[in-house]
Structures are given as structure tokens and as C-alpha cells.
Amino acid sequence: MVITPNIPNLPYTKKDGVKYFNLVAGYVRSEILPGIYMNAYGYNGITPGPTICVYPGDYVCIRVYNKLSQPTSVHWHGLDVPNDMDGVPAIEPSPKIYPGHYFDYHFKITNPPGTHMYHSHFHTVLQDMMGLQGGFIILDPNESEENIQRDYYLMLDAFKLQGLKEGVLKKGIYDIDPFAGMANFFTINGRCFPYTTRLEVKEGERVRLRFGNIGMMNHPIHFHGHQFYETAVDGNSIPKENQLKKNTILVSSGTTRDVEFLANNPGRWPLHCHFPHHVSNNMTLPLGGMTTAVVYE
Questions:
Q1: 26: closest CA among 63, 66, 64, 62?
Q2: Same domain, 125 and 164
Q3: CA 81/CA 171 separation, integer angstroms
Q4: Are 166 and 261 contacting, i.e. CB atoms less than 8 angstroms apart?
Q5: What SUPFAM superfamilies is this protein classified in (predicted)?
Q6: Same domain, yes or no, for 77 and 187?
Q7: Cα–Cα distances in Å, from 13 out to 7, 21, 62, 110?
Q8: In this predicted model, what pLDDT tens digit does every residue of 10-37 receive, in sequence order?
Q9: Cis peptide before 220, with omega less than 30 degrees from 0?
Q10: Which CATH number do you get for residue 265?
Q11: Residue 7 domain-assigned (yes or no)
């Protein structure tokens, strides 16, 4: 089972062989640090939105309701879907979803198991940077706990909160500037360290970490105390003989990366972006931002 810390998996109902999901695009007040909130966009009341988990061959119908004051759409990033289901109304026959309306995206999962994402593709510079995004995981029906004992999804993002002087943290509710060229808060699954949820493992377990990045910045993610193998890129598996052993991996904008490691060095180990500004909360000195910890139980 894939776990997205702080973010639930999206439930579904199944009828006549089709899995039915519901996503609601709307306004969200998201707490990124204790007492620090941002006015964002999200799905089902959170940003990033719920993680969607399916299997190859599934038929899905994802009903997207629009509770925003402007049209929106959803693009299934990396999925091979019919042209009118791809969610880019400026180019494709896929429609805009107007305020107060919904659209049913329905398609068969034809991709192999892998890590993908979903996000808005209408007024993209605004809606994506306001938080309309989530994870989309195609599970491997042949994989068991003998292969992977822990499977975590981590969505990386960055926001420019207005009204905070650089170098100052003050509790309050802040608006996002989606058009800013630089960010001052860097998140994993919608939270900044030390508010991020630690990733718990046991010694001897095989662990998979799935990274996703819809935002406009690149993030070199570094893991302390361990080496890992890069096992997939953009939802496509890398043959074992071609997998590289690393301790830092670049998660570029628009990409997903899967890594796997053996938990063989007990302790509390940082996992963080290696850009110094990205491990800070509004340029304050204590460790923060895009950081979490892998902790042995």
C-alpha cells in the first residue's frame, strides 16, 4: 500500500467493473507550519489533493466538481488517455469545467505500474501554483510485501506567501502570490519541516520513496546515511542492470522519480532538498522547508 503522509488515498466505489472517484476543486486554507496558514486551491479540501491509486487495466470514472470562481480542468500527467480526457482545453477537445459544474473523466488504465500526478491545465500558471495537484499511482498487482515493505509518496512544492518580511515567521493567514518568480516556503505533502511527518521504517526493510514535482522549481533530494537505487522515472521502470546507485536525486519540474533502499543503518536520518534556500522557512535560520526524517522504529 502506498502511503502519502498527511494526505489520504482517494476512496472509490465500484459498479459494473468501473471504479468511480470524486474530486472537488475548491478553495483551501492549508496549515504549512503550526499557526501559519495559506489561502490556496486544492482538491477535496486539501493541497496536494488525495492520492489516487489504481491498477493496470482498471476502468475509471473520475468526476471533477468545480467550486472555484473560474473554469478549471484536470490533466492526468504521464497517463496515456484519450485526447478528450487529457484535460488541456486550450488545445485539445477536452472541455473546461465551469464554476458550479462537473465533468466525468473516464478512461482505461493502459500504463504499466508507476508513479504519476494530476493537476490543473487551465490558467496553469495560477491554478498549479495555488496548489491544484495530487499524486496518481498505478500499483503493481504482482508486488507483495516480500518485495517492498514500506512505500511512501512525497509531493514537493514551493509557495510565495505574501505579507511576511524575509527572515520572519509570524502566525497568521497569508495569500499566495502564484506569479512570483521565487518562493519563500518549500513543502513536502503540503507541510514544511518541522511540521512534516516523519517516515517510519524498520531495520532490514526494503523501502520505496516516490517523489513528484509539479511546481516550477527543481529539487535535488539528498538522503543521509544510506545509498539508494533509482528504479523508475516518470512512471517508467528502469531495468535493474541500468539502475544507478545514488544518495542524491534531482526531481525536476514535471517529473516523478522512484528510489529504493535497504534500511540497514539505524537512526534518525534527514531527507531533504539540497538547495540551501529550500531547507529554510522564509529565510529563517533553523532547519525547515523541504525536509523530513526517516526514523527507525
A1: 66
A2: no
A3: 43
A4: no
A5: Cupredoxins
A6: no
A7: 19, 7, 11, 20
A8: 999 999 999 999 999 999 999 999 999 9
A9: no
A10: 2.60.40.420
A11: no
Among the listed residues 88, 78, 84, the one whose alpha carbon sits nearest the alpha carbon of residue 52: 78
Question: Has residue 8 been placed in a domain?
Answer: no
Question: What is the C-alpha separation between 4 and 87, in angstroms, rounded?
Answer: 24
Q: Domain of 185? A: 150-296
pLDDT digit string, tens, across residues 234-287? 999 999 999 999 999 999 999 999 999 999 999 999 999 999 999 999 999 999
Q: Which grid cell sits at 19?
A: 471504479
Q: Count Cβ atoms within 10 A of the Cβ of residue 118 and give its class: 0-12 exposed, 13-18 middle, 19 or more buried.
A: buried
The C-alpha cell that represents 235 in the structure block: 512512471
| Residue 82 is assigned to a structural domain of this protein | yes
Q: How far apart are CA 157 and CA 127, in angstroms?
A: 13
pLDDT at 76: 98
- pLDDT score recorded for residue 181: 87
Cα distances from 263 to residues 19, 218, 221, 294, in angstroms, run: 35, 26, 18, 10
